[in-house]
Amino acid sequence: MLLREHSIVLEGITPAGARVRLRPMTEGDWPYLERWNSDPEVLYFSEGDDIKSWSPEEVRCIYRTVSQHAFCFIIEYQGKPVGECWLQEMNLEEINAKYPRQDVRRIDIMIGEKDYWGMGIGSTAIRLLTEFAFISQGVDLIYIPGIADYNTRSMKAFQKMGFEVVRKVKCRPGSKANYVYDLVLTREDFLEKIREHCR
Questions:
Q1: Could you tell me which InterPro entries the record lists for this protein (predicted)?
Q2: Is the model's pTM score more than 0.70?
Q3: Which of 7, 27, 28, 123 is the most exposed place for a label (fewest CB within 10 A)?
């Protein structure tokens, strides 16, 4: 199985005026993806308690599998690959059971180049994916599962876009996080936010 590729390109500008481009992830992107997914500091924020590194084989398997039901992108900042993100059909049964007969998606994102953290790139990518989901794809709801309490940058980036906490779960003793949070944004709330912005 290879990456399922697509032809969608999304472009935006950070609050500081820098160009961010989401371009299709391809089989030629493994050097970036493998490097980012073997960096313990990057994975501290993007993965669970016990993940310090993924092997090249695991990285390829993860992205190839996800891509079968997702739009997977490489995030470019001023033309340089700095991270990855995807808009995926919800793959958690308990979430789908909560929202029957609705098109529920999830967004996952990683800024793999640490020198580019805190520059608004993640927020811009989240905005582009959210707009793509609701406007181009007609998605009903985006559900973000399990943001750890110590990942404040990610939490703020989603909340800036209008996502709201719908669940707070206490973690087991010894976990990296004390709590993890699930966030949600519906198409109705997204469109209302746009209408308010235009008034």
A1: Acyl_CoA_acyltransferase, GNAT_dom
A2: yes
A3: 7
